[in-house]
Specification:
single chain, 753 residues, alpha/beta, three-stranded antiparallel sheet, elongated
Amino acid sequence: DHLGAPDEERLAALQASASQLEKDLAAAMNRQEAAREQLAQAQGQRQGLLDARTAETEALARSEARLHALRELQANVEADERLDPWLRAQGLESLPRLFRRLQVEAGWEVAFEVVLRDRIEGLEVGRLDSLAALATNAPPARVAFYTTSGAVPREAAPLAGFSRLADRVRGHDAALTAVLGDWLSGVFVADDLAQALAAREQLPPGGQFVLRSGHLVSRFGLRFYAADDRKAGLLARRQEIENLEKAQRAQKLMVEQAVGALARCDAQLRQATDSEQNERQGVEQLRSQAHARQLEVVRLAELVERVRHRGSQIGAELAEVDGQEQELRSHREEAERRFAELDQALAEKQQAQEAARVAYEEADRRSREAREQRSQLAADLQRSEFEVNAAGERRADVLHAIETAAADAAQLALDQQAAQAQLASLDDTAARTGLDGWLGQRAQAEERLREARSRLDELAQQMRNVDEERLLLERDVQPRREKITELQLKEQAARLAVEQFAQLLSDVHADEAALLQRLQVAPVRASALQAEIARLAQEIESLGAVNLAALQELESGRERKGFLDAQSADLKAAIDTLEDAIRRIDRETRELLQNTFDQVNVQFGQLFPKLFGGGEAKLLMTGEEILDAGVQVMAQPPGKRNSTIHLLSGGEKAMTATALVFALFKLNPAPFCLLDEVDAPLDDPNTERFCALVRSMTSHESTPGTQFLFITHNKLAMEMAEQLIGVTMQEQGVSRIVAVDIDSAMRLTAEAA
């Protein structure tokens, strides 16, 4: 065949162009590698900044929670139910308090509170003379006032080797410093108790040492401090609140800085990602151009070679070219087939990994819920076991006490029968002669009965002490249980992570021995491995893989959507069920509460006229919604207009409250009812009506078998009792309990008569 003359100049130009393209491709690949490293560095930096922002945010949340709790505690401690209304009535509630102005060195707050005592909450006034009018309207609780008007610093007598407590005050208010210097003129600070005790002879008259812990040492006394008042720590909490407010402002600035740094890092990350993508596209474009140019150079070179070796070699060259072409075609087909298989395998692996991840998340969530439920059930079970054991012990003690009391009662009954039999066999003179002896035996029996009751009370007190110790032990054990549960959860999470990583290594057929040896020689961090994984994933993505598993993924997505729709339907059904249950509970609660209110109102309306000898009373709700409404007591004694209970006298209030309590008691009666000086504010006619009501309650069908135990000093109330128990002091400093059975005393009196 005829071959045209080759264009050798064009071949040289193409070779030069191909060489330049290879150089450009190498430079572009270097730039791409640099962009990848920059991207990996930006990702690592972003993760660090994200962790820092999370840590700062959590620290801010903890600080806010601590500050909120301290503010609520400080507000509750500062509130005084008795003093605050009086201060508002006098117009003094806005006066500044001393502890809000006082600034002391850290660690000395307790010492200042101990020394200043009530003055730590002192109110500052302009002139103390203006408070002279308060003598006729004294406050209902302790309160201190002070003034800084005309206060000038005074030089206090020093004590060699010791500093004054007033020197621990910080601030620049000279007048307040002068007032504190006057109050603390004889108070010095000591490092420890031994030093204070050793130097107490050096104290001036009235002087004392104070320690950081609040202990006071004077020349002739030592007082230990303990935080037994609810207002203890008032100054320390106020300073801690101020420090927390400052720390919170600084923490907010740190959070804002972390957020800003994260935003800047995100911008840099986006820029690095765009740069890496641009470099990758440039590399692909240059690689395509270089490949095309190389193909063209090879084609022209082969053409030149064929022209030069025209003749005898042309047949061999053609055969060789055909063989090479066939081999390249087979290699290309093999490469395309292998590429398709790898792409299919990659898609399947990705799908399996996604399914495994979803299944793992679901299983992990269920596992956490099961563990939490198991922990809660275990705690409830143990608490129930403790309560059952304690109840069993209490029941055994009570049964033993009942058996002992029954035995004593049986013995007393036998003794009484024997005494009656002997009394029947004797004449009146012998009975009178032996009466004193039997009374002595009865007193001894009663003394044994009182000792048994005292023993029963001691056993009950011991049982209560044991219960308190058990509760303390349970409170101590609960945090340890929670810590163990937390450690178990962490251990299980770590074990699951190890199993997951082992499964991943098994899936990719990794050589674990070689990997372990490599890690021992040169340990690597998880972040570096993540960056390497991301780089490899990007290289795989740059191959432009065709997702042949799209149909399978679509089917999987449909199945997952169906599963999620079913779960959504279940959740909606559960929500509807819960809402129905809530509505049913609200309805039943309203019905039960309304029924109880009506029954109590009826009983209250019946008992009130019995106590007052007439009149009427009722209960009114102060709102439309019964679950949120309050209750107002309306009482109208005979001869008075209807009014609220707040407008009644003290005795009328007591009788109205007694009627309401008895109305509630008749709704759910108990075996015993204890009344503590209920008749104290009542006169004789009202006391008689109160006694008649109590008698009717003992025999009423709604309170069968109820025993009333009442404490009283009223003779009329004592007359209705069946048994009297009192305390007498026959000898100075020796008390004795005296019990009188009214029925037995009346029988003995009748027999004696």
